[in-house]
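To make this tangible, this section ends with a sequence with its structure tokens:
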Amino acid sequence: MNIQWFPGHMAKTRRLIQENLKLVDVVIELLDARIPMSSRNPEIDRLVGSKPRIIALNKSDLSDPGKNSQWAQYFKNRNIDVIYTNAITGAGLNELKNKLKELTRHKTESAAAKGRIGRAVKTMVVGIPNVGKSAFINKIAGRASAQTGDRPGVTRSKQWVRINPEIQLLDTPGILWPKFEDVETGLNLAFTGAIRDEIMDTAELAAKLMERLACLYPDALMARYKLSQVHDRTGLMLLEEAGRKRGCLVSGGEVDLYRIAAIVLDEFRGGKIGKITLESPPENENTEGQP
């Protein structure tokens, strides 16, 4: 599957981020903890430049705890501040607020010395569609401030949100990039819902996901769909068996592939198959600078 998706409004978002960077002190880059590398927009490094940045690995309740530790060490080795967050429970958000104040302490102290008492830290949240950005902002603000939805690209314009008297936050629409460098990146984004299902063959996508899970988490996959085995079987074969076990049949006893595909994708995205991370940190890579 060669997946490419770059709606026109995302080009506008790229310009919006670039224009508003001068207004903020710190950038929060929100990533999907299940796909930390694939959910990193390569354009963000260029856009943000030397601006202080925190990486928040969101949806950490859905990711593999063992892989979480590996990724935390990976970013730490690169001197990047990383915090694992959960926009549903609020886990990690107090730590994030403290880190924001720590990174901007010199600015607030300088402002106070000039008589500007109570200067708020201004931050911007950037991230790909459907990474949980609006839910993240609403949780950290303690109220429904940002529009949310289960479809990628719901937030369409910038909006300032006051987190507390000390922190102001600029929300921006999700931004993907014009061309994915490899097939795996596109698939990872599609598996997690960052790309709209409507533009893809979901049966083929679910079959690819079954193949990936059969390699990475075979026991969890077999247990969830009561599969007889996963080794030496194609994703389509696994999807068909899962469809039969779930009763997703049409007249003549054929498997309704699109029905079982929708179930598999929904259950993966909801964490029902297990706590899963689809990527491991690169090995033997230069640890200087950004990943």
Summary: DSSP finds eleven helices and six strands in the chain. The longest strand covers residues 26-32. Confidence is low (pLDDT under 50) at residues 146-156, 287-291.
